[in-house]
Amino acid sequence: MESIFEREPVEIAPGAVHTPDWLSLVEQQRLVAACREWAAPPAGMRHTRLPSGGVMSVQTVCLGWHWTPYRYSRTTEDGSPVKALPGWLAELGARAVGDPGYVPDVALVNFYDGVAKMGLHQDKDERSDAPVVSLSVGDSCVFRFGNTENRNRPWTDVELRGGDLFVFGGPSRFAYHGVTKTVPGSGDPATGLTAGRLNITLRVSGLD
Ligand SMILES: O=C(O)CCC(=O)C(=O)O
Ligand SMILES: [Fe+2]
User: Fold this and answer.
1) Is residue 164 in contact with ligand 1, taking CB distance under 6 Å?
2) Is residue 50 part of a domain?
3) What is the pLDDT of residue 194?
4) Which residue ranges traverse the bilayer (predicted)?
5) Ligand number nearest to the C-alpha of 164
6) Which of 13, 38, 113, 138 could form a disulfide with 197 if both were Cys (CB 3.0 to 4.6 A apart)?
7) Residue 107 included in any domain
8) Would the CB of 134 count as within 6 Å of ligand 1?
């Protein structure tokens, strides 16, 4: 684990930077309120079904493009159009990467209850190598950031807390990553999220 005393930006791997405490409390509150609206049906939050027949433990709602393993579409499983990705969220992403030319057109909004995890995977259904921006609110988690070859070591376990930013691009864009556990009760209830963890990843789909 990265030291719990380290709250400065850290380059975890080339092109992968963890910036603790990047979101203000007000920004976190805005995200929590927005996530509540996005989570509501139609095209709301649900457990993604896997081709194996199982479901992911995480609950997800998509904005801009709807992701199901392993492709993007404009409509959800129930036939509803995917919700729009608002301009303010895309602008937050541009600020996160420090590039006004970064225009994400997909967001995956993930909710982790106290037992949800996410297995090691690559974000590779995009047809763009633009960076992925990850914003976290609520409970802390252990975010495992691996290599681009396979699910094995080397990896680095990073504690992502509410308010933290993680950007992975360049040589790390297609690195395996996942969430091995969350820490229930560790989030700041002042965000409006009293239990669980929210993570929002912004991506450029490369689709039109
Ligand atoms: O929850 C996280 O921090 C990671 C989410 C993720 O990897 C994804 O949505 O593809
Ligand atoms: Fe991912």
Assistant:
1) no
2) yes
3) 97
4) none
5) 1
6) 138
7) yes
8) yes
Å from CA of 161 to ligand 2 middle: 17
**Count of structural domains, the chain:** 1
Domain annotation covers residue 4: no
Q: Is 171 helix (H, G, I), strand (E, B) or coil?
A: helix
Model pLDDT for residues 60-100, shown as the tens digit of each residue: 999 999 999 999 999 999 899 999 999 999 999 999 999 99
- Domain with 65, as residue range(s), is 10-203
What is the per-residue pLDDT across 124-136, written as a single tens digit (0 to 9) for each?
A: 999 999 999 999 9
CA–CA separation, 143 and 54 (whole Å): 22
Place of tokens 């997800």: 60
Q: Which amino acid is at 122?
A: Q
- How far apart are the CA of 149 and the centre of ligand 2, in A? 15
In a domain, 208, yes or no: no
Whether ligand 1 lies within 6 angstroms of the CB of 60 is answered as no
Residue 85's domain is classified under what CATH number?
2.60.120.590
* Alpha carbon nearest to ligand 1 atom 4, residue: 178
Residue nearest to atom 8 of ligand 1 (CA): 201
pLDDT tens figures, 154-180: 999 999 999 999 999 999 999 999 999
The CA distance from 113 to 197, in Å, is 7
